[in-house]
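Morning!

This is the sequence you dropped in the shared folder:
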Amino acid sequence: MEIVGEEKTPSPTPPQAAADAASAPIRSSSDPFPLGQCEKWQCVPLCSTALRCSLASLCVSGCSVTRALAAIDRDEHAKRPDGHDDCGLCGGRIESRQPDGRWGDGRAHKSCITEQRRAASKPVRSVSAPAATAGAGRQGTRVFSVRTSRRPYHSLSLTQKRERRREAREFLQAIDCPVSALGGQVAAAAELLHLSTSARDAIRSVPSLRIPCEESMANCKRAAAVTHGTETATFDTGAYLTDPLHFVRMVTADSPLLVIGGDCGGGHTKLGVTYTEGGKQTFAALLVYADGDDWQALQRLRTAGLTPFTGASADCADIFVVLQRLHDDPARPALLNGDWLFLNALLGLKAPQSSNHPCPICIVRSGNFLSQVPAHVRYRSSSDRLSCHSDHPALLRVTPERIVPTPLHVFLGISNRIIFNACKRLAGDAAVAESVARVKTTHSAGCGDLSDLYQLNGPEITQWLKRNTSATLLSSFPRPTPQQRANATVLLRWMTGLKDSLLSAHHWDPRAIDTWRAFINDLLSHWVEETGDHAFPKLHMLTHSVDFLERYRFLGRASEAQLESFHATFNRLFHRHHNNQGAHTAERLRRSLADTALAAAQPSLVASERRRAKALRH
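The structure's back. Tokens below.
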């Protein structure tokens, strides 16, 4: 080694250094020797650690002094009194039975050597993070080595995840950023679309909960209007989606079932689609207006230029053209549901109570409601004029086989007849009034209709069945006769069978269909005898439920239950969340419709956001 500014002298050997150690001058690490220069060394005592550190600080790597010091360290290491070596990688002691190997100037565990070589073979990226210098308060720099080919966090084992979190905490500590400052994971804007602005503001009042700002929410809504067709507009008495075909295609992409329908509730009529989302029945409105669901109100929606559509629906003149296109779609033909009045108005038929042939599916006469459909009674065709209104042309052309036989309204109509007519005849007015009062709920003002006052809805009938048996129903009689007990048992069995069958979403097999057919035959054959009541149209619709089951193998899945429950959701938005618009009914309807449309598109938006985030991670 050539040293600048000094004569070339042979490097002293360790024996010579040991011989002249006593006469060597002791120098400290603060002596002003330039880097890379050494004076002519005299030997130093080999056991002096302080002098060894001083020599190392004065000599450049690779000079004779550095090599001598390495030899000294090896000799001292080999002379440990316990006979064990220290691992040069992890610092732990190498036991006698642990496999080890050479590593640098010492030895290390075999496992440590393998891990070190595996880590060295992967690409490494250095991350510099400022760290406070101890004592002086100055800012230094700490370098973290990060492997760029790391596995995703969700694919790690529990131990590997714990190690990854430890590394993250060390890095945050080095840059003087507490973990609590990061907060929890920020939810995507699409996951909060179903919440109102006030609900999101309430969440933001909790510092530990982090959600997107309102600007991000507005951007998400604007993007959904383009990608999922949630844009809305108003007309004189209502609101509608400007591209309903695109909206239906996006929100029902994963649904094997599509049902078009409408109903009036809370003073507003909703026209939309029923579909399945995640195995659950869901309704999405396409148009809402403040009027009834009779033919005159529906006909006004056909006014030219009333609802100009855009995008994929631009060539549709009115909402009924949209519904007709969904019904005629060969890839997924839509069914039709709703209550009996809505179906007859939509098809241009007379009302059930004023018609000789009130059924929208077949041409049965009103006097044959309690009999099975005779062989000569056929389904309706386009050429039939029986009970067709002369001044009310059909607004929609629907094949009778695709009409859902109103399972929810059949259950509600027959059950209320049994409770308020048959049970009163059997147990008395006082007993029935007391049992009804125990299950009757208080409805919000402006969010119901006359049926809430004089009849029981679905949840109330369910509670009535849970609380009443044949014994409790006849509790007002000290000694009920066997005939009365049998009569009460039959009535309750009918109500339970109707609830379990008409509203069930399960798949029907041929044996279950045969059992249901026998149940209907028993009910129709003994209706007058057990209830003392006359026949009414909803009893006849039970016979069509068997035909519908044989064709599609489901019934409750296509019922109007979600259409009816949608009234409560929409009315809550209209009366509570958008009441600041006052008398601007159309704008209140538009905002309520926009909220429900975004809620319907939310699952698809969230799935798209997750796919985008996954693509960015990879």
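Headline: The CA atoms of residues 26 and 44 lie 8 Å apart.

More detail when I'm at my desk.
O.
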